[in-house]
Automatic annotation (TrEMBL):
<dbReference type="Pfam" id="PF01425">
    <property type="entry name" value="Amidase"/>
</dbReference>
<keyword id="KW-0648">Protein biosynthesis</keyword>
<keyword id="KW-0067">ATP-binding</keyword>
<dbReference type="InterPro" id="IPR004412">
    <property type="entry name" value="GatA"/>
</dbReference>
<dbReference type="GO" id="GO:0005739">
    <property type="term" value="C:mitochondrion"/>
</dbReference>
<dbReference type="InterPro" id="IPR020556">
    <property type="entry name" value="Amidase_CS"/>
</dbReference>
<dbReference type="GO" id="GO:0050567">
    <property type="term" value="F:glutaminyl-tRNA synthase (glutamine-hydrolyzing) activity"/>
</dbReference>
<feature type="domain" description="Amidase">
    <location>
        <begin position="25"/>
        <end position="471"/>
    </location>
</feature>
<keyword id="KW-0436">Ligase</keyword>
<dbReference type="GO" id="GO:0030956">
    <property type="term" value="C:glutamyl-tRNA(Gln) amidotransferase complex"/>
</dbReference>
<dbReference type="GO" id="GO:0005524">
    <property type="term" value="F:ATP binding"/>
</dbReference>
<dbReference type="InterPro" id="IPR023631">
    <property type="entry name" value="Amidase_dom"/>
</dbReference>
<dbReference type="GO" id="GO:0006412">
    <property type="term" value="P:translation"/>
</dbReference>
<protein>
    <recommendedName>
        <fullName>glutaminyl-tRNA synthase (glutamine-hydrolyzing)</fullName>
        <ecNumber>6.3.5.7</ecNumber>
    </recommendedName>
</protein>
<comment type="similarity">
    <text>Belongs to the amidase family. GatA subfamily.</text>
</comment>
<dbReference type="InterPro" id="IPR036928">
    <property type="entry name" value="AS_sf"/>
</dbReference>
<keyword id="KW-0547">Nucleotide-binding</keyword>
Amino acid sequence: MTDLIRKTASELAALISSGEVSSVEVTRAHLERSDAVDAAVHSYLYQSPEASLIAAAEADRARAAGEVSSPLAGVPIAVKDNLATIDAPTTSGSKILQGWQPPYDATVVKKLRAAGMPILGKTNLDEFAMGSSTEFSAFGPSKNPWDLTRIPGGSGGGSSSVVASFQAPLAIGSDTGGSIRFPGAVTGTVGTKPTYGAVSRYGLVALASSLDQIGPVARNVLDAAMLQDVIAGHDPHDSTSLPESLGSMTAAAKKLDVKGMRFGVIKQLAGDGFQPGVAARFRESLNLLAAAGAEIVEVDCPSFEYAIAAYYLILPAEASSNLAKFDSVRFGMRVEPGEKATIERVMAATREVGFGPEVKRRIILGTYALSSGSYDKFYGAALKVRTLIQRDFDAAFAKADILVSPTAPTTAFKFGDKIDDPLAMYLNDIATIPANLAGIPGISVPNGLAEEDGLPVGIQLLAPAREDARLYQAGAWLEKAHEEIWGKRMIDFAPELEVN
């Protein structure tokens, strides 16, 4: 069954549909892979093999009865542990929620179950999705399967590493400032942030409600497109959910055509200050697009210079509000401070023990930014910058159909290199943050290996809001062009894990 774990989700779906293999066989193969490697990679925070196999058996029964619920029926998937699951703990990578089991499923989880997709487990993340490396998970970091001494990105490092290590063909992530796309870039996987509102956030443990978006993690663009088709759609439980359908992402990924499309190279993200290997791969992809008949133009987005500063005021402000609910009273951890245990002291003691250093840092920053006397100076100014960034995107999309940049400035860095330097950590998201501030869709597609270290590089594609299909069309073409040059898929370059 080892061959099954290296197949794409679309390939597995075809095999299951034809009856060549069963969902139980595919699910068991991935569970056995986890038994072999996850002690070293630490992608999962929770697994229930029995429940996974029961769901797979039900998918097989439904297919035999002619009750096929989706094109991905029977294909197993992993879910980031900030999504509510009624049958499994949801910790959001934090001690304050350790062992908490929700009384309901997130809308995305409901859609996965309805589509007949067995859930393999809950994946690791930086605490409350605050981080770029999973080093801020209360339960220890996930590792990059390409090099276990390096980070798999964050906050969704568990979802990226579970796919890159062949423990799951698909995963669900959440992206607040690049937490799907950055991990995709450094692990050689595909990660998509859909248009804000295209996928329901109901049941997602909120970090910053105006920025968060749930999206697919996959091994290729077609798989990501198929998964977005499963999880997208209007949800009356989410007031920000788009009322209209954005069309079939799967159909867009199968077009494989870029002739006549205009690709805008963002002047502020054109490679200056990026690792040489990252910049070199980016230029090569631009040449591939131009040779195929695409038009390459330069676009100027001057407000991007202030995007990180604005983001790290808006996000902490929203996070300080969203995390106020963890007060030791309603759910989660409770710490009794002693004999004189007032509600204020219990709350303070619980939050002191339950929250990690990065969460505390952002709560303090956000509370200060929202305080009287600071609101207009900091938070209000950040909102004005956000508007300028949105206007820059509007102007850029008047000249280009798709905007392109490297996904991240470097390849995966080593554990410990940036954990004590928050500003250096925050700069990892320099290329991904603007899309969240504007609510537009973005995708990171594998873009080769950096010559200096042999590690994966990603290229980011951005489109106007509601035009997610453009990303899948162009991303699938780039992926195919790369595979023809390299002779195999990017993920197949990954070295075999050496584990005990």
